[in-house]
Amino acid sequence: MTLIKSISGIRGTIGGVPGDNLTPIDTVKFAAAYGTWLKEENRGKEKLKVVIGRDARISGEMIQGLVIQTLTGLGIDIVKLDLSTTPTVEVAVPLEHADGGIILTASHNPKQWNALKLLNHKGEFLNAAQGARILELAAEEKFDFTDVDHLGKVTRNEAYIDIHIDEVLKLPLVNAKAIKSAGFHVVVDGVNSTGGIAIPRLLERLGVHVTPLYCEPNGHFPHNPEPLKEHLTDISELVVKKKADFGIVVDPDVDRLAFISEDGEMFGEEYTLVACADYVLSKTPGNTVSNMSSSRALRDIAGKHGGSYQASAVGEVNVVALMKDTEAIIGGEGNGGIIYPELHYGRDALVGVVLFLSLLAEKNIKVSELRASYPSYFMSKKKIELTPQIDVDAILKGMEEKYRGEELSTIDGVKIDFAENWVHLRKSNTEPIIRVYTEAKSQEEANALADKIISEIEDLVAVNG
């Protein structure tokens, strides 16, 4: 079992021993650290407000109760969204004029995990310095709770998924008329979390016929919740069986988005951002950003529309920072995360759905035909489990030395750009693994490159003992 503390929040498995797992004690300590940091940041402000929302995980209600009561004990008022999505909370924070927000979700991790994802007053993730300060406060455990006359109050507001949908549908580039005229039939896999509430509701507002699959928000994930091809056989079969136009898959907190073509094949999670960017840039030319583990296809699409492309370090906060620096029109991550600043600076599957539907409706082609119109790259995403004996930094340094003659970037692990393909090696911030991402002109070549690199890493591990 595992507890991972990072600048982006605290994530761990439920149960077990405090300090080793996400127990009630760890939850309270970290929530208190966040509340204390908020009070530091807002000295002199009489009353603070925090928005809290959660995905449908089995542990969500317990973790939510602990977090809310801890913050009210610090004198902070709470807007409780209850079942929600990550982008919904991000949208709610500025609409509520709140001082921060917490999303209770472990994203794509299995059901035994949960996490506290922390937001600032803009509804955006904290930067490295802010996250580091919260870790310091958690370690110090010097919390000053309020007296009985100044406890925070809790206001419940379960309307925010609908409010979020309203905000999405107000976006100028959403072609609701074309979508409604197209008469789409879509299968939705909500992995029995809050996507099963939000995505069908959004589609129904647009006149799309929905066949739901795993849309009961009970937290019992029917398959591995990471939206990868090997986990999505059920929806692939159902799309074909129902003769649907395509399928939509989201992760438990609805910030990642993947599509299934009408023939049951994966559209490719990397191409979610590519398609949405193609549509946005065709209407509003400009710059794009993704992280350096994302496909070269976005660079190609940006060039097609006369814009520039830049790659950031992995992590949503890094993508957002570079998007702001370059005034990017759209950006995100190759894991199916769409960031469209016209609404907010956060990955948002609801925004991705409406941009994709608008593109498809205007082009009036099949999803498989749309995919075939884009540059053809194939990616392999593998990982190496870590053990305490492995010096990860030494391994990455060894790979950097081995390929010193190639085009290298070390701003985030080691990325090696070859002429026809690339490999990106990095230590995960959320799991005890090294991620090995490769991309090439064929799946076989991408897999072979990944296997070659993994073999070389294993050789380095053996040499270094």
| CATH fold topology of the largest domain | Alpha-D-Glucose-1,6-Bisphosphate, Chain A, domain 3
Q: How are strands sequenced across the largest beta sheet? A: 1-2-6-5-3-4-7
Largest sheet: 7 strands, mixed
Q: Percentage of helical residues?
A: 25-40%
CATH class of the largest domain: Alpha Beta
- Mean of residue pLDDT? 94
Q: What structural category do the secondary elements indicate? A: alpha/beta
Family: Belongs to the phosphohexose mutase family.
Cofactor: Mg(2+)
Organism: Sinomicrobium oceani
Keywords: Isomerase, Magnesium, Metal-binding, Phosphoprotein
Description:
GO terms for molecular function: magnesium ion binding; phosphoglucosamine mutase activity; phosphomannomutase activity. This is Phosphomannomutase. Residues 8-143, 173-264, 271-375 form the Alpha-D-phosphohexomutase alpha/beta/alpha domain. One of its GO terms (cellular component) is cytosol. Keywords: Isomerase, Magnesium, Metal-binding, Phosphoprotein. The chain has 465 residues and is α/β, with parallel strands linked by helices. It folds into three domains: 3-158, Alpha-D-Glucose-1,6-Bisphosphate, subunit A, domain 3 (Alpha-D-Glucose-1,6-Bisphosphate, Chain A, domain 3, 3-Layer(aba) Sandwich); 185-372, Alpha-D-Glucose-1,6-Bisphosphate, Chain A, domain 3 (3-Layer(aba) Sandwich); 378-464, TATA-Binding Protein (2-Layer Sandwich). 39% of the residues lie in helices and 22% in strands. The chain contains 15 helices and 20 strands. Strands 1-2-6-5-3-4-7 form a seven-stranded mixed β-sheet, with helices on both faces. It starts with a strand and ends with a helix.
